[in-house]
C-alpha cells in the first residue's frame, strides 16, 4: 500500500472509557490518535480530558497524577490545575501562567466520548442517546485490532460475509439511510440452517452508525418484553490500530426509564446482556482473524450485490480531510 492509500485519522466522537471506570477522583491514561490523553473526574463528578504533559517541566499527569477536590495535581512538583485547565496553585509560591489543553468530552449511555477533528475544530454534531433513559452497558469486552476503525464499522454493511463467515442469513428491511454524520439501517438476521429444519429464529436489528467510532444495535424482543442494546465502539489508538469495545445492555421494552426496573428484573437484564455479549464476541473473534491480516482496499472491485459498501464508502468520506 502506498502512503497516499493510508487512511488518516477520522473526525468524530470516540469512546475512551466507560463511565463506571471514571469514578470521582480517578485518573486514567488512554491512547488516542497516536498520543496519550489523560481522563479524570473531579470530586463533584465532572469528567475532563486533557493533554498528558504538565506545562511546567513535562511530567506525565497520568503517571501518578491525583485529583484534589476539583483540581488535577501533577505528581512531579504538585502544580494544581483547575477544571478549566488553568494552573491555580503550587506548593511554594504563586502559580505560573500555564494551562492544560482540554479535549471536548461527552457522556452518553455510560460511555465517555472525546471529540477529534483536524486542527482542533469544534464538534459539529452529537451522538444520539437511546430513546429509553437510564440505559448503560452492564457487560463489556475489548481488544486491540490491527486495522482502521472504518474497516470494522464497514463490516456491518458487508452482507456477503455474514453467511460465509458467521453462518447467518440476512435480509435488509430498511436500506442504509445517511442523515449527515448518522447512518441508519434495519436488518433481519437469523441462523443459516439447513432447509430440512423448518423452524427459523429471526430477529429484527435496528442499526445506528454515529460517525466511524460508534455503532449501536437495538433488538426488540416483544415475546419476552425485553429490548437489548449492543454497542461496538472503535477508537483509533495509533496508525492502523484500533481499540474496539463491545458492550451490551438489556431493559424492559415498554418502560421509558430503564433504571425504574425492579431488582429481579435487573438481574434478568444483566444475565441476558451477558448472554448477548458472549454471542457477539464469538462473531467478532471470527472477524478478528480477517481484520488482523487483511489490507485496506481504497478502490475495491465491488460485485453487483455490494451496493451497501459503495454507499458506506461515499458516506464515510465526510470524516476525513479533503481531498
UniProtKB/TrEMBL annotation:
Any one GO molecular function term: metal ion binding
GO biological process terms on file: cholesterol metabolic process; lipid catabolic process
Any single Gene Ontology cellular-component annotation: cytoplasm
Domain Rieske span(s) in chain numbering: 13-114
Keywords, ordered alphabetically: 2Fe-2S, Iron, Iron-sulfur, Lipid degradation, Lipid metabolism, Metal-binding, Oxidoreductase, Steroid metabolism
Organism of provenance: Streptomyces roseochromogenus subsp. oscitans DS 12.976
Cofactor: Fe cation
SUPFAM superfamilies (UniProt xref): Bet v1-like, ISP domain
SUBUNIT field: Homotrimer. The two-component system 3-ketosteroid-9-alpha-monooxygenase is composed of an oxygenase component KshA and a reductase component KshB.
Protein name, UniProt field: Rieske-type oxygenase
